[in-house]
Specification:
This protein has 6 helices and 3 strands. By secondary structure, the chain is an alpha+beta fold.
Amino acid sequence: MPKPSDLRLQGTAKASSAPRPALEAAGEAGLGRLIERAQMLAALDERLRRCLPDSLLPHCRLGNVGAGKLVYLVDAPVWGAKLRQHADALLDAATAAGFQAGAFTVKVVPPLPSGPDLAAPKPLSQATRDALRTTAESVADPELRAQLLRLASLA
């Protein structure tokens, strides 16, 4: 009976060792239309941003276009109010770009929380390193044992 690690590796070898670009791989996985839509929205957002003052740019982005409506996302209500002052210019620019939009919607979406600083990870405590070494000694799989010992050696 094959080990689980053997099953995981079956069929993953390729004739070429060069990695495929992420967008190419995603397109082959059936996500091509979604990727094309995201790229179209990004290009339209870039074009429509030319109609906006610099003070608004970091606080808003195009969220969607369709059904005759532009949907913009802002990070606070105050920016939504300021963005609405430019609705006519944005609708005109969308029409000039080939998107028939007669309505304008603004949605407030809080900014994504920023992640922890990855450059300065918290060091492992001595108790954690000892537990990793003890676990490594009890594991039969040599690869897992080596990984556990490597983790235990991190300062």
